[in-house]
Write a structure and sequence with these properties.
The protein is mostly helical. It has one domain: Growth Hormone, Chain: A. It is 83% helix and 0% strand. The protein is built from 16 helices and no strands. The longest helix is centred in the last third of the chain and has 34 residues. The chain starts with 6 loop residues before the first helix and ends with a helix. The relative contact order is 0.15.
């Protein structure tokens, strides 16, 4: 098994961080462009959000395919092929003639982007020991946030300098170079044990995961947290593009630099989990996320940015812990267990706009904050329940 700080640890971790970076740079490119899409295509805020929600939805659906498939045929080849397909689809988005074509191509791209997230943590679970896994997951999720930041910044900046079509084409070209590095760095699997691929077994594995309370709690936390967090950023682009802020697409892209605090939160999450239980780490992250959400109510751009920094740190701290929690508590079929977590995660993000839209229409940003706190209170309760359940389970085993 791969040990922490070994040569293979850093090669594999760097490769998976790079792959994660490419996935989320391509996924989130449209986030700062939504006000522009509303104006150019004459569509509502909710319709413009589909440019991100739809690929998130198809990404979530694809996890049900790629995770179980990798349990049978292996991890590495699927990650490479799907990443290549996603990059090609992203380049074609730049050729879309209308919003309907853009959405179709984004849906295809989202499906292909699911290959790497469905498998990456299962690959780590196969190849890394427990200590190395905790450290690597934190770095890997840092790649998520860095990719998301970069895709948003580049999407806004290139659009301001040229147009949104060229933004897609440019990011696709850069991603091809990243794919070549990913292939070179990622070691071949040494400890993967294939199992026969069967639809009945695949469904049974998913049902068993949903009946595992340790996993179901983490699924609800990850899905509902992202249900709120991702869509907060969608609506805040409308808040900051209007009076009195009037931010351009490039400046809206810069807004997502606040994700860098999430990168830091992910990177240190493994160290925090070595000091306090993982369930308490998740609860801590949610409390921080609630606090940051409340700070954004202050009617000042600096306060809003500070609130988003706090939000990102709390969200990614919790997400890192929930991801590794699933791998730790999966009794079998780790890839499908991790995939199901991400299904909840991305379907949550894809549907959160429908939940928050009425709050936005009723009270604007304060309404979004209210809707957010209601859901985050639920996830905090689930995290507290997991902590109590784990503590009681430990006491029973020691008795």
């Amino acid at each position: 098994m791969i040990e922490p700080n070994s040569r293979d640890f850093w090669r594999a971790t760097l490769a998976l961080c790079l792959g994660s970076f490419l996935v989320f740079a391509n996924l989130y490119i449209t986030h700062p462009l939504m006000p522009l899409f509303s104006e150019q295509f004459q569509i509502s805020e909710l319709q413009a959000s589909w440019s991100l929600s739809l690929p998130m939805l198809t990404l979530g659906i694809s996890l049900l395919v790629f995770g179980p498939l990798s349990d049978a045929v292996g991890r590495r080849k699927i990650m490479i092929l799907t990443l290549a397909g996603a990059i090609i689809a992203g380049g074609l988005v730049g050729q879309a003639q209308n919003y309907e074509q853009l959405l179709i191509l984004r849906a295809v791209q989202g499906f292909m982007l699911g290959g790497l997230p469905a498998i990456a943590i299962a690959y780590m679970g196969d190849e890394f020991n427990r200590k190395a896994l905790l450290l690597a997951v934190g770095f890997y999720i840092s790649g998520n946030s860095l990719g998301g930041v970069s895709g948003r910044i580049l999407g806004g900046l290139i659009t301001d300098l040229s147009n949104w079509q060229f933004a897609f084409e440019s990011i696709a070209m850069g991603s091809l170079i990243g794919l070549a590095l990913f292939i070179w760095l990622l070691p071949n699997s040494q400890h993967f044990q294939p199992k026969p691929l069967g639809f009945r077994q695949m469904v049974q594995d998913l049902v068993d995961h949903l009946h595992n309370p340790w996993l179901l709690g983490a699924y609800l936390i990850g899905g509902l947290n992202f249900f709120i967090f991702s869509n907060q950023f969608s609506f805040i682009t409308y808040l900051l593009s209007a009076e009195p802020y009037f931010l351009s697409p490039s400046l809206l892209g810069m807004l997502f630099l606040t994700y860098l605090s999430g990168t830091f939160g992910s990177a240190i999450s493994g160290r925090i989990a070595q000091r306090i239980p993982q369930a308490l780490c998740m609860l801590l992250g949610i409390i921080i996320l609630i606090a940051g959400t409340l700070v954004t109510l202050i009617d000042n751009i600096n306060a809003i940015l500070m609130g988003l920094l706090i939000n990102s740190f709390g969200f990614f701290l919790c997400h890192s812990m929930a991801s590794s929690w699933v791998n730790r508590h999966a009794l079998k079929a780790r890839a499908s267990a991790s995939s199901l977590y991400l299904v909840f995660y991305y379907v949550g993000a894809a549907s959160g706009g429908f939940y928050l839209a009425p709050f936005w229409e009723y009270r604007g940003w304060p309404g979004v904050v209210l809707g957010s706190v209601l859901i985050l209170t639920v996830t905090a309760t689930v995290a507290g329940w997991l902590y109590q359940r784990e503590r009681l389970d430990l006491q029973c085993r020691q008795a």
